[in-house]
Amino acid sequence: PREQPVLEAVLPAPAEEQNGTDGAKAPKVNCEERNTTGIERFTLQILNVSQDLMEFLNPNSSDCTLVLFYTPWCRFSASLAPHFNSLPRAFPTLRFLALDASQHSSLSTRFGTVAVPNILLFQGAKPMARFNHTDRTLETLKDFIFNQTGIEAKSDVAVTEEDWEGPLPSVLTKGIDWLLLFSVLFLAGFVLYATVRTESIRWLIPGQEHEHQE
Fold first, then answer.
1. CA atoms within 13 A on the CB side of 115
2. What does the UniProt keyword field contain (predicted)?
3. Which of 54, 90, 125, 184 could disulfide-pair with 59, CB 3.0 to 4.6 Å?
């Protein structure tokens, strides 16, 4: 008699375990959470013009700091302000700093800040991730921090009236964009120089010299 084929049962358990392993994503940045003992108020710190960001970042540690580059006359920075002000309460084990990009132009150039607001996550003194979402709300900021660090936000934190008042200003202030002003003055000076030197430039064009002699 012919032998009957033997069918082996395929158990789904290994596949499920593999999928579960893949689904649990490890944090991209392993942050050392700071000791919050004795800290009563968790708030954002804004650097003034004389303070250097590097003085607040420890290159020898693994603690994480979220740094905001903003300008007081940028409406996008103003709309982000109350949401960013509430972050220190949502993540008390992390540090949060903000600085005026127009007053710290060297830092803006160093870290590639071509537009504000710009948010960078630092581990020690090294930038690890940049917030690139156009929807800048407390929830999207929470998701960004959780996806990068694996640290969960406190669920009872929401944007309050105090967050609209400060420390980061949510009201636009009048100011001068010195970079834009310099660009306009440079362009105007170049056009004026080209206009004055038009006669001299003609001598550089082939054929113009013979036409002038005739």
1. 6
2. Membrane, Transmembrane, Transmembrane helix
3. 125
pLDDT confidence tier of residue 112, bands split at 50, 70 and 90: confident
> What CA–CA distance (Å, rounded) separates 131 from 67?
10
The residue count of the chain comes to: 214
Q: Does residue 170 contact residue 164 with C-beta atoms inside 8 Å?
A: yes
Are the C-beta atoms of 67 and 97 separated by less than 8 Å? yes
Return the residue matching tokens 């800040």. 113
Q: How far apart are CA 81 and CA 75, in angstroms?
A: 10
What average pLDDT is seen over the chain?
A: 80
Residue 148: predicted pLDDT = 94
pLDDT band at 25 (very low <50, low <70, confident <90, very high): low
> Hunting for tokens 């160093």 — which residue is that?
110
In the chain the domains, ranked by start, together with CATH numbers, are 45-165 (3.40.30.10)
Residues in contact with 51: Cβ distance below 8 Å, sequence separation at least 6, in sequence order = 99
Best CA proximity match to 36, nearest among 79, 91, 111, 96: 91
Q: Any alpha helices (H) in the chain, and if so which ranges?
A: 13-23, 75-90, 105-110, 138-149, 161-165, 178-196, 198-202, 208-213
Query: In the numeric block, which tokens belong to residue 8?
Result: 């082996």
Phi-psi region of 38 (alpha: psi -120 to 50; beta: other; left: phi over 0): left
Instruction: Evaluate if residue 69 carries a pLDDT over 60.
Output: yes
Average pLDDT over residues 86-97: 94
